[in-house]
Amino acid sequence: MKILSINAGSSSLKFTLFEMPEEKVIVSGTFEKIGLLSSIYTIKYNGEKKKKECVINTHKDAVNILMSELINMKIIKSYNEIEGVGHRVVQGADKYSESVLISKEVCEDIIKYTPLAPLHNPANLIGIESFQDVLHNVKQVAVFDTAFHQTMEESEYLYPLPLEWKEKYSVRKYGFHGTSHRYISEFLKKYIGKDAKIISCHIGNGASICAIENGKSKDTSMGFTPLAGLMMGTRCGDVDVSVIPYLCEKLQISVTELINKFNKESGLLAITGVSSDLRDVESEYMNGNARCILGLDMYSKKIVNYISMYNTLLDGAEYIIFTAGVGENSPIVRELVCDKLKVLGVQIDKDLNEEMFGKFGEISTSNSKIKVFVVPTDEELMIARDTFNLVKE
Ligand code: ADP
Predict the structure, then answer these.
(1) Which atom of ligand 1 lies at the shortest distance from residue 276's CA?
(2) Which atom number of ligand 1 is nearest to the Cα of residue 280?
(3) Under CATH, to which class is 193-379 assigned?
(4) Which CATH class, in words, describes the domain spanning 2-144?
(5) pLDDT tens across 219-252, in order?
């Protein structure tokens, strides 16, 4: 059965076509700069990459091009071969604790939760509607970033604020990257043959850490929005909220403008003054750039803080997993973090750590009290699995 996995952003659409249940990637690609002057799309098939520039006005146009390309490239003979389309949806609030078949009600809820995810939910819905327009009868599935964290207890997800704000305005911790943390949890369960106490560190441009027990999220570092928690590429993570009115007055800007700066002009970018891309920061760090040394020190300390906290929450973690762009590819960050965890009995093998780029493997020594692994995440596959399971019924 052919299943499409879709991640639609405001001006982009990423896709992967899987053969399920074999979990084989047939073709993947990205449409970028949709609605802008000149759009680009890239399709990866059979080890080759096809790149084309053209005008793509809407997401629906992108879906039409994608389907025509699949026919032209002889990947499918007819549109009917696509039996399910799964979509990443960022915010499912406390109604959705798992993936669901998309109905009118689900679409209405995605709109309803837009105030909780103004940048993402509208774009995710446009992706859904575009496929509805082009593939009229295909079953579609919503896979929520927040769903995995719905197992958090009240004492973890509530903020110490007046309770009626939670009831009236839905103010609480939701957590994000749930599809990735769930993938890590399921991957490890398959690998070791049982559930374990896991600290899953999804460190990419956006970053979050999740404490997992019995395959369930117990707590996670992101909050009401993906701005909370760790220091990230351009996001500040946790800061004292009292700086908000203070800075708005000093800078003579609105709260919205300041939050935009917290999201886009902070984190590694702000501290290093070099880049939000860790590769650039690392090369300057190696050259002895003082701000990059400071940046990576702060970056790794925030990760260590959450790992230490979740080690206590889990009453002793068994596994620390590094995943996503930085987690999978940066021996420097992994070493900076693990060296600060010696007090927990964490020991990594420096050679193994240096070798581990974007592939699965252990980097801890045999006498490390907590095992440390690198596991490449695969959110697209998780979306395809959920879609296949709901569509085949
Ligand atoms: P997101 O999905 O949040 O946009 P990714 O998980 O793709 O982010 O991670 C992007 C980050 O991963 C970037 O900061 C990038 O620098 C970092 N990264 C990718 N490859 C490497 C590498 N080889 N070494 C260090 N960092 C890397």
Answers:
(1) 14
(2) 16
(3) alpha beta
(4) alpha beta
(5) 999 999 999 999 999 999 999 999 999 999 999 9
